[in-house]
Amino acid sequence: MNTLKFTKMHGLGNDFLVVDATKEPISWTAANIQAWANRHTGVGFDQLLVIEPSSNERCDFKYRIFNADGSEVEQCGNGARCFAKYVTEHGLTDKKSVMVETMRGIIVLHVLEDGQITVDMGKPHFAPEEIPYVPSSPTDHDAMAHVLIVGTDTVTISCVNMGNPHAVLLVDDIRKAPVSVLGEAIESHAQFPQKVNVGFAEIVSRDEINLRVFERGVGETQACGTGACAAAVAGIRHGLLNQNVLVNLPGGTLTIQWQEGESVLMTGPAAEVYSGVLTY
Ligand SMILES: N[C@@H](CCC[C@H](N)C(=O)O)C(=O)O
Question: Whose CA is nearest to atom 5 of ligand 1?
C-alpha cells in the first residue's frame, strides 16, 4: 500500500491536488489520477500539480501538470499561482520570485505584497504547427479567424498556444454559449491532433471580457488561467481590447496584460484549502 501526502488548493475555483515530490520521486498511474480526481469517490480536482527538482540550473523547481483524465499537459496558469503560494508558504524557498521549468519552457512566478501572484506566462504562439492545428484549407491561414467545420456547424476560432493549445470563440452572451456541447466537439476535433482547450469569450468593453472555458481533459471549469491569457491575447489581436484586460470567469476575475511581441502577464489569487493523505 502506497501513501501520498497532498494539499488541496484552488485558483478561482479551478482546483488542484498539489504534491511535493522534491525530496523523493512519487509514482502513480493515469487510473490513480482519475480515481483521486473523482468528485464523488476521490478528493476531487481539475488538475494534479507535482513539484519536482529541476535539472535546469536557471530554475528553482520543475512543475508537472496532469489533467483529471490522467493526461500530462504542458501548462496551467491557475496552477502556477497555487504552485507559487505552496513553495513560498511551505518553506521550499524563501524567494518571492521563482523560476519554474515546465514541459514548454520556463515561467516566472512573482508573489506580490498583497498575496496575489503575477505569472510571466511567456510569449503566445499562433502558427498552426505551434498550436498544433491542421488548417481546413490552404486559405485557412489567419490564426485569429480559422474556419472550422464542427458537425453541421461552421465556427470561426482564434488559435493561441500559451504553452498549451487554446481555441477561442467570440460570443454575444456567454450565459447562452453552448460550452459543453460545442466545447467537447472542438476539444476532440480531428484538426487538433493534441486536442484543445476551448474558450467562449464575450467582450464587455475594451478593458473587460467574460469567459467560460471547456478544458481539455476535464470539461468546463470555474476558471482557466491559460484560457484567460489566450482569450485576452485574441481580443487584443482582433483590435477589440486594450493591453490590460479584466477577465471575468465563473470563479472570479483575473488581470491579463499583453502587448504584441511580449510575454503575457497574469495576476490573480491562490488559496490553500486543506492537506491530507491518500492511500493507493
Ligand atoms: N486550468 C488550467 C489549464 C490546465 C491544462 C488544460 N486543461 C490543458 O489540457 O491544456 C489553467 O488554469 O491554465
Answer: 76
Residue nearest to atom 8 of ligand 1 (CA): 216
Pair 44, 143 in one domain: no
Specify the ligand 1 atom closest to the Cα of 71: 9
Asked whether the beta carbons of 160 and 127 are under 8 A apart, the reply is: no
The string of pLDDT tens digits covering residues 12-54 is: 999 999 999 999 999 999 999 999 999 999 999 999 999 999 9
Sign of CA dihedral 12, 14, 17, 22: negative
- For residues 185 and 245, membership in a common domain is answered with yes
Annotated binding site: 14, 47, 67, 77-78, 164, 197, 215-216, 225-226
Q: Report yes or no: 100 and 109 within 8 Å, Cβ to Cβ.
A: yes
* 28 and 79 belong to one structural domain: yes
Annotation marks residue 76 as catalytic: yes
Taking the C-alpha atoms of residue 17 and residue 207, their distance in angstroms, rounded to an integer, is 33
Q: What is the ipTM of this complex?
A: 0.99
pTM metric for this prediction: 0.98
Cis bond upstream, residue 132 (ω within 30): yes
